[in-house]
Amino acid sequence: MFFASDNWAGAHPAINDRLSRESTRFAAAYGTSDLDKAIERKFNEVFERDVAVFFVATGTAANSLSLASMARAGGLTFCHTEAHVIEDECGAPDFFSGMRMVPVDGPAGKMRPENLKERISRYPQDAIHHGRAAAITMTQATEVGTVYTLDEIDEIAAIAKANALPLHMDGARFANALQALGASPAEMTWKRGVDVLSFGGTKNGCWCAEAIVFFDPALARDFAFLRKRTAQLFSKSRFIAAQFEAYLKDDLWLDLASHANAMADRLRSGFNALNTARLAWPTNANEVFAILPRTSAKQAEEQGARFYEWLQPRDMPEKLAEDEMLVRMVTSFATTEEDVDQFLKICASA
Amino acid sequence: MFFASDNWAGAHPAINDRLSRESTRFAAAYGTSDLDKAIERKFNEVFERDVAVFFVATGTAANSLSLASMARAGGLTFCHTEAHVIEDECGAPDFFSGMRMVPVDGPAGKMRPENLKERISRYPQDAIHHGRAAAITMTQATEVGTVYTLDEIDEIAAIAKANALPLHMDGARFANALQALGASPAEMTWKRGVDVLSFGGTKNGCWCAEAIVFFDPALARDFAFLRKRTAQLFSKSRFIAAQFEAYLKDDLWLDLASHANAMADRLRSGFNALNTARLAWPTNANEVFAILPRTSAKQAEEQGARFYEWLQPRDMPEKLAEDEMLVRMVTSFATTEEDVDQFLKICASA
Amino acid sequence: MFFASDNWAGAHPAINDRLSRESTRFAAAYGTSDLDKAIERKFNEVFERDVAVFFVATGTAANSLSLASMARAGGLTFCHTEAHVIEDECGAPDFFSGMRMVPVDGPAGKMRPENLKERISRYPQDAIHHGRAAAITMTQATEVGTVYTLDEIDEIAAIAKANALPLHMDGARFANALQALGASPAEMTWKRGVDVLSFGGTKNGCWCAEAIVFFDPALARDFAFLRKRTAQLFSKSRFIAAQFEAYLKDDLWLDLASHANAMADRLRSGFNALNTARLAWPTNANEVFAILPRTSAKQAEEQGARFYEWLQPRDMPEKLAEDEMLVRMVTSFATTEEDVDQFLKICASA
Amino acid sequence: MFFASDNWAGAHPAINDRLSRESTRFAAAYGTSDLDKAIERKFNEVFERDVAVFFVATGTAANSLSLASMARAGGLTFCHTEAHVIEDECGAPDFFSGMRMVPVDGPAGKMRPENLKERISRYPQDAIHHGRAAAITMTQATEVGTVYTLDEIDEIAAIAKANALPLHMDGARFANALQALGASPAEMTWKRGVDVLSFGGTKNGCWCAEAIVFFDPALARDFAFLRKRTAQLFSKSRFIAAQFEAYLKDDLWLDLASHANAMADRLRSGFNALNTARLAWPTNANEVFAILPRTSAKQAEEQGARFYEWLQPRDMPEKLAEDEMLVRMVTSFATTEEDVDQFLKICASA
User: Fold this and answer.
1) How far apart are the CA of A29 and the nearest CA of chain D, in angstroms?
2) Is the ipTM reported for this complex over the cut 0.90?
3) Residue D82: which domain range?
């Protein structure tokens, strides 16, 4: 019952096998091997267009370097108030890009378009004192388990376009969002106006595989230097490539995300059927936020369950009773139906 | 015949096996798992004292963050003129630490103590305009295949101590240097006055395992933040820990380095016995610099050999003939006697 | 009728005279002259304790370097949502300090203590992902013309102390705030818990005189390097010292601020007496925010008045009519009663 | 007898008078006043073409921001080994530009073209590990009192052009170099290929007036943001403009530099005529390096002379006797013939 985070899971067997095979051979270093090049081409196929792809070590690196590629002197990046880039990356985006993250409010972890427009309007391109709008970043799926619909992405992208701002998507849980929407990678990104994507594999079955995908090659011009200067160029880069090979082969990545989402659905259905516990708010991908009796939470923990108590958002409509707890549960490729059912059973018995 | 670099090798089977096992289980993220903690303790054992250990993604990160931990406003770091930190890391050490790298000359890739002293003396602690001496970094084994003797380390460390400067060691090829000297990890580091070590595993049989080892815990005080802010904290950190577990178990790491060094010895002996090729300068660890007839080099390449032509150092005593080439050859845990002998045979036939 | 900003005024005759005298002599450069030293001692007298004083070129430099002196890796600085450091300095505080500015809401340009406490509580000292609280900065007088009372400073300082955070005060309009409160420099700063002060002279009669005053000498330890590294050490530093000599002599600075405040009072009284215009909110120092008929504003401009239309704050209780405008008016040492009366007369005639 | 530095002098009366007049009026802040604009146009006239001009607080700021305007990720700036940007600005150029300064040797304070070419060739545009050449900066007049001839500037500029690198000139003593060469501002800069100039007024009669002049407007595109983000935008910017107005009017600046140079000539002639002291090396502008008996130096100091003992350059052909001292003497607009003659008289009497 490991629901603490999808990054508590190990690596999928197919990915592990591919790594094992890779370990036995020699190959050129620093991303110049044939395998590296082949995987870069595979991304073209996945996204149905020529893209520039760069591997990095962490999701934080993917986000921070994506924004660094969009940096302008005195530039500001607009993100949701609870976005990972502003609240969970210890200032790496600011450090790598030299930009400040400007928080934009909105319900359900999504920037409200009106708020985004209003904030951007305060920082026009000649605002030497205030700083100038330089980039927008959105998280898909969001930090709170929701997913921007394609129409909602269109709305954000339209604002980006109207203000001539590049649009970044933090896709740490990209596959989960894709499967939640039933959209193709192209449909959820460049076809809507996304310029740069943090493409995460680590939370969905790799052990370390993060990529930055540039749909706008102009933004990638200096990127090889930006990556090296931030110590993110692996010497044995091809081990990242190997993971992505297995990950992308025969749609494994989509299957893994579907499984994780299905496990979250099972949790959601379970909570909806209980009267001893309930969902805190609706979610779409592989995160579930539930309100449990503290006794259930404690009992689950004693039986080995792992999850995080969550700080109550200011705008949560549900009220917590004294003896209740808000918890976040994250499912992954490795979550089993048994785990889910056992957890629900504990809650039911409260 | 892959002699281009030790980072062209794959991963050792024992390390690969350990990774495979790790892939099947859940564990806490971001370096908080039991395995992460166990390996941190293992480092205490290896170094015969309590150390603070942090995993990072690359050797460049290890060096750059080590120096960041020593950073002072207006600080300067002294390194050899050809050091990796100044010539091969695209400014990452400067960016992460905010310090400038000051080159110090010396033969055979080692800072000459007199030069180091003279340079430091130009930047006293109140030198607001020039900047002030803040750190010394030495590379062991060096970029050109040599190894500081224990006495030579003492000399550098004495200068560090006399100037109250912390001393960093870039140990990308730490194990190769250890085995070349027949010294213990403690003897080659903190017992001589090294404060922080970049402990590299990647070049010696891991696919991605770099650690920073703090012998002076005071320097590690802010380190967790420095690492996160530079996007170097792996979520599935325990996969680094797993590699180090196998690497350090039963002295595997020392055996692998001994093998690489022995292969370099075999190359050295071979070149010494040839009159068609010769060593460019003496080396001690797993790098060999040789002067070959261009025809031999070409023939070797055609038969699949990989190595780099090397830019001739200004102070090289040997002179190259028109039809000769200076090449760097690096051996690794995966180099075989057959590879070495085949290469020498090609040279002999020139 | 120059009400656009107090930095539109020139320099006071006494300060100009002192500069003229200074221009005729030689003196040591880079802040080492006798005059520089004497003025540093004068600050001890003004603040009734030993302080460390450093001159810089701009108020933005004073704020940004003050925060740089408090910087910690992954550190966060808490400031009011509308503070100069977050909204008007183009990211200089972030760039110089490496910290992010975290906005804290509160009415009348002042951080509400509850909000400050709540924000700080989200960033404890081990919050590697979120970043950690590292500093608090408050503006006195605030951006919107109000002044923290001594009790209110106590409240903020108590929060700083409880969280072991250093407290900075942006005193671009320090003298105006002092005179508004009738407090002594010591009473409004270190006696309440302020650690570092941006002491502004430029807006109050100097042409370029900004100082950073350290009440906690430990924070000044590296400061000479921080200042030089940000290109803020004047070679002819003694011309700043000369301005401060005249500024501080015989309480000139306090007289100038009193005059500016009195002119603002005269404006306030005037608007209160009109029924064609009104104050937008109460202010205490040398800024006045008024709601005028657009026709009055236009007429005033045609007659040479200068002022800025102000973006309406979200929480402003007053409502603007269609034909009204919110304007900011700033008075200075150079504002005359005639200017004030003429402006009011124009408004009265609307 | 103030020969310590030209920044020990005060301000010229004409400049002081202009400042006094400026102090009595109101004007728009932050460089937007009519005066600021008029002086920008005056620079067009001085340089015989449309230029973009920005005022900053210090020479260090002028250099550091000039280089920041040329910055590229992983970029390297080439400068003379003893250049101010690498040895006397506490890392401000690195901090503002994110680039490393790469030292290039050459006699008499000038980069030797062969050395410059060789260094640049090591850092081609795809050198991700080494970093890539991004800018060249030369100092005119140099740190050691010499002046690049127009032909020598051509040589450096040709290298810049051949490598597609922008060329910066540190003109802290620009006027002194101009007068030494008898060249026009245009001839010594953009007509030879200089792209950006640090135009110093402070050492030559202003108390604080430094400007950055962009001959290539493309490099100025983001400059307003770079300047503000480094806290270098004066609110009362027009006081800089006022100094430049008087400075540039009726060629005052050239007259002042001619005077300083003439005083240096007088020193040089004097030393050449003595057999008790001698020149250490030939200089052309307003700096003189002399070898004195220590007794003379002591005697001069006792009589009020101020100068700096200079660290002996490694390549100085002259040898110092035990009882001799190498001193640097700098003349300025305020140096008198009497000062020079008195100093020489002391030396003669040794």
Assistant:
1) 12
2) yes
3) 11-251
